[in-house]
């Protein structure tokens, strides 16, 4: 297991063969105890076995909770008469209340005990991950506020659960976001088994909330798409008819008021952020679970932690900003056309053409960056790091969403008419997307396993920063301010010109890929879903099958882009 080795073992107070003389600081280390291993002869062996047993039991707890919740959600989808959405909400509310009780106990009890947090993992919970938790958590709170307002307006056809469940959700999001912001780096040394079970219960609850959000989003998109196709069929524009149409939409219709429309549109707009919030929280909580009982040696802690500085990059931000601005224009034009009753074929051509231009540039940049990594003399970081291991797993796992959808699209296009203009664009887009995901993963994973580059002038840079901070504390005149701006500009150009070509290229590539992944995250997050709206794969695989594929791959693809931004920032900082 990670981080379970101890350089100096303390005597066992529960074994008869323990040493008589104990060091004076034995109270600072709390060894794990488990009832299955009371008769162990070695303190280190008992500690390791107790940690494995604790992880096993907490993992089994999470597995059973996830299976139970998945059975409820699946029953709601396939038999909504016996199991309703209110029943699922009641189960999730019970789980959230249990998680709230444990989080409060951890904040006020476990973490306040003497010697509870002797070590903190410097790699866990970087600022952009914790910032993502706060950002997505804020949007999720606003989402639940809109849901409460929408249900209050339609109280005559809504149950009270529609108001109680979002209220509990707001309390859960607030407490969890505060808990992760303050304690995401903790390597807790007391109450190991209780902490592991609490973390695993919280992970399972977030996974079930994500699963419910995906299925609810699926139902909403299905109703909206089918209503649009019914309108086209009555207008004589739809070649296919779909027998199933959810009549529940007629039961609760939003009145013709501005406030109701605001709540409804705001709820639809903010819905994707809730799914991202659940996935990010799961990743942070998993790292905390791996760090329970972990003891970090002092030589594993980096003396100089690299910081994010916008130095040594010129072309990367320019090309990335061009890609972002162009993507926003394409996205706005696509949204205007795709939300109409009859989406224009040209808007799909424009959308896929943008991707066909951007994806090869990203792939070439990732390949060049990987080659530069191979030419570098930086040593590999071989220390065990739970955060880095999780980053690799999430990158590889989340990429399967887009790769899987791309292969399904390739099969559908090749089997129908690959010579059509739109079909050929979709085919090229699918192939390039697979190649881009693979090359970017290789580049990020290789960069994450490299030792941070420490330049010889680090001390001079630190002194220069201290001088700047001291200078900022004084009141300066306009002339001095202008001289300071000139000095900063000259310093930026000086640092850029003195960077080695390898470091400069890595920073340019990393920054360019960061901005590209941001715009590729924004477009599907805010409603651009051409993989379903173009109609090709839907007519080939059938409505229900393709919808299941899209709603499995699309949230993973969105999460992949967001997680890639964090990994690329790590590569940029360490370059």
From TrEMBL:
It is found in: Cell membrane. Its main location: membrane. It is a multi-pass membrane protein. Residues 7-16 have a biased composition (Basic residues). InterPro entries: Otopetrin. One of its GO terms (molecular function) is proton channel activity. Signal peptide: none annotated. Keywords: Cell membrane, Hydrogen ion transport, Ion channel, Ion transport, Membrane, Transmembrane, Transmembrane helix, Transport. It holds the Pfam family Otopetrin. It comes from the Eukaryota. The chain crosses the membrane at residues 56-82, 88-108, 128-151, 163-181, 193-213, 268-289, 310-334, 354-372, 392-414, 426-445, 509-528, 540-560. Residues 1-24 are annotated as: Disordered. One of its GO terms (cellular component) is plasma membrane. PANTHER family: PROTON CHANNEL OTOP, PROTON CHANNEL OTOP3. Belongs to the otopetrin family. This is OTOP3 protein. It comes from Oceanites oceanicus (Wilson's storm petrel). The lineage of its organism: Eukaryota, Metazoa, Chordata, Craniata, Vertebrata. The gene is Otop3.
């Amino acid at each position: 297991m990670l981080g379970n080795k101890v350089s100096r073992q303390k005597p066992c107070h529960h074994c008869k063969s323990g040493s008589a003389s104990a060091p004076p600081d034995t109270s600072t280390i709390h060894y794990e105890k488990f009832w299955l291993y009371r008769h162990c002869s070695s303190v280190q062996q008992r500690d390791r076995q107790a940690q494995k047993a604790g992880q096993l039991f907490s993992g089994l707890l999470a597995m059973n909770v996830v299976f139970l919740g998945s059975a409820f959600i699946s029953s709601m989808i396939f038999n909504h008469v016996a199991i309703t959405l209110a029943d699922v909400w009641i189960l999730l509310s019970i789980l959230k209340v249990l998680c709230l009780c444990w989080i409060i106990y951890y904040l006020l009890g476990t973490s306040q005990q003497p010697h509870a947090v002797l070590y903190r993992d410097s790699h866990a919970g970087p600022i952009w991950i914790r910032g993502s938790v706060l950002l997505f958590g804020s949007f999720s709170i606003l989402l639940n506020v809109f849901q409460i307002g929408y249900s209050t307006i339609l109280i005559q056809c809504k149950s009270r659960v529609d108001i109680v469940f979002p209220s509990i959700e707001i309390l859960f999001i607030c407490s969890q976001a505060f808990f992760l912001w303050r304690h995401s780096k903790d390597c807790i040394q007391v109450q190991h088994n209780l902490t592991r079970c609490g973390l695993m219960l919280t992970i399972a609850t977030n996974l079930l909330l994500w699963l419910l959000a995906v299925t609810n989003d699926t139902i909403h998109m299905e109703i909206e798409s089918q209503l649009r196709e019914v309108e086209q069929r009555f207008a004589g524009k739809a070649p296919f008819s779909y027998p199933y149409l959810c009549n529940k939409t007629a039961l609760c219709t939003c009145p013709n008021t501005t406030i109701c429309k605001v709540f409804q549109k705001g709820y639809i707009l903010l819905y994707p952020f809730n799914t991202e919030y659940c996935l990010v929280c799961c990743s942070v909580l998993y790292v905390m679970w791996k760090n329970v009982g972990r003891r970090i040696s002092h030589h594993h802690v980096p003396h100089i932690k690299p910081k994010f500085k916008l130095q040594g990059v010129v072309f990367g931000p320019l090309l990335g900003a061009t890609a972002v601005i162009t993507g926003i224009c394409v996205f706005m034009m696509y949204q205007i056309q795709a939300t109409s009753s009859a989406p224009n074929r040209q808007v799909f051509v424009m959308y896929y053409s943008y991707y066909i231009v951007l994806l090869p540039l990203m792939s070439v940049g990732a390949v060049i960056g990987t080659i530069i990594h191979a030419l570098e003399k930086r040593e590999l970081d071989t220390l065990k790091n739970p955060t880095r291991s999780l980053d690799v797993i999430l990158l590889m796992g989340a990429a399967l969403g887009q790769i899987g959808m791309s292969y399904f699209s390739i099969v559908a296009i090749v089997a129908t008419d690959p010579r059509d203009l739109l079909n050929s664009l979709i085919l090229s887009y699918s192939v390039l997307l697979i190649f881009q995901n693979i090359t970017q993963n290789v580049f990020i994973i290789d960069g994450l396993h490299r030792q941070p580059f420490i330049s010889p002038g680090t001390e001079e840079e630190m002194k220069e920063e201290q001088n700047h901070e001291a200078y900022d504390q004084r009141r300066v005149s306009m002339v001095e301010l202008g001289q300071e701006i000139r000095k900063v500009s000259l310093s930026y150009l000086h640092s850029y010109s003195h960077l080695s070509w390898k470091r400069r290229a890595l920073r340019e590539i990393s920054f360019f890929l960061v901005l590209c992944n941001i715009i590729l995250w924004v477009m599907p997050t805010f409603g651009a879903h051409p993989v379903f709206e173009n109609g090709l794969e839907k007519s080939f695989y059938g409505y229900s099958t393709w919808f299941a594929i899209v709603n499995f791959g699309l949230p993973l693809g969105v999460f992949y882009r967001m997680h890639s931004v964090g990994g690329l920032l790590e590569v940029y900082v360490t370059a």
